[in-house]
C-alpha cells in the first residue's frame, strides 16, 4: 500500500512537472522564431517578386536579399542570448523536452542541408536544393505535433498542420520557382512568424492574469 501511495505521488509530481511552463526561454525563443519567420518570409517573397519580374532584377538586389536577412537574424539571436544570460531557462519537464526537440530538429536540418547541398553540387542541378525547404517544413510539422501533444493548445496543433500542409504544397510546386518561393514565404509568416508572436505575447498575458 505504501509503495502504491509513493508511486501515485511520484506520478502526480511528474504530471505537474510535465505541464509546467516557466522561464524566460519561451519569450526569448518566441522573439527569435518570429524574427526568423518575418525575415525569411520577406526574403522568399522578394525573391519570388524578382523572378516574377515585379522587381527589377540586378546583382546588388540578389545579394542584398540573399545576405541581409541572415545577418539581421544572427544579430537577433546573439542579442537575445546576451539579454537572457543567467535567467531561468525553464524548469518544467516539458520545457526541457521541447527545447531538446527543437535543437534536435535544427541539427537534423543542418545534416540534411549538407547532404542535399552536396548532391545538388555533384549533379550540378540546383533544383534539387528545393527539396530542402520541403524537409524543413516536414520536420517543423513533426516538432509542433509533439508540442501540441504535450501542451494541448489549439494554436500549436494548427501550427503543426500548417507546416505539414506547406511541405505538401512545396513538393507540388518544385517545378514552378516563383510560385514555390511565394508559397514558402507565406508559410514562414503563417507557421513561424505568427506562432512566434503568440509565444511572445503569452508570457505577458499570463503575468497580467496571475
Automatic annotation (TrEMBL):
The chain crosses the membrane at residues 31-55, 61-79, 100-121, 127-147, 154-174, 180-200. Keywords: Membrane, Transmembrane, Transmembrane helix. It comes from the Bacteria. This is Uncharacterized protein.
Amino acid at each position: 500500500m505504501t509503495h502504491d501511495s509513493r508511486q501515485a505521488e511520484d506520478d502526480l509530481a511528474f504530471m505537474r512537472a510535465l505541464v509546467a511552463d516557466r522561464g524566460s526561454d519561451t519569450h526569448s525563443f518566441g522573439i527569435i522564431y518570429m524574427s526568423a519567420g518575418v525575415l525569411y518570409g520577406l526574403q522568399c517573397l522578394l525573391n519570388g517578386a524578382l523572378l516574377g519580374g515585379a522587381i527589377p532584377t540586378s546583382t546588388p538586389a540578389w545579394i542584398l536579399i540573399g545576405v541581409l536577412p541572415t545577418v539581421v537574424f544572427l544579430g537577433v539571436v546573439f542579442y537575445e542570448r546576451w539579454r537572457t544570460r543567467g535567467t531561468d531557462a525553464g524548469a518544467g519537464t516539458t520545457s526541457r523536452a521541447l527545447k531538446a526537440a527543437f535543437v534536435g530538429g535544427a541539427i537534423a536540418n543542418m545534416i540534411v542541408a549538407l547532404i542535399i547541398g552536396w548532391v545538388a553540387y555533384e549533379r550540378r542541378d540546383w533544383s534539387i536544393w528545393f527539396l530542402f525547404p520541403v524537409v524543413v517544413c516536414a520536420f517543423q510539422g513533426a516538432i509542433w505535433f509533439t508540442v501540441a501533444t504535450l501542451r494541448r493548445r489549439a494554436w500549436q496543433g494548427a501550427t503543426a498542420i500548417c507546416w505539414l500542409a506547406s511541405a505538401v504544397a512545396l513538393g507540388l510546386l518544385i517545378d514552378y520557382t516563383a510560385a514555390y518561393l511565394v508559397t514558402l514565404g507565406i508559410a514562414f509568416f503563417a507557421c513561424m512568424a505568427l506562432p512566434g508572436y503568440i509565444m511572445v505575447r503569452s508570457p505577458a498575458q499570463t503575468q497580467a492574469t496571475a
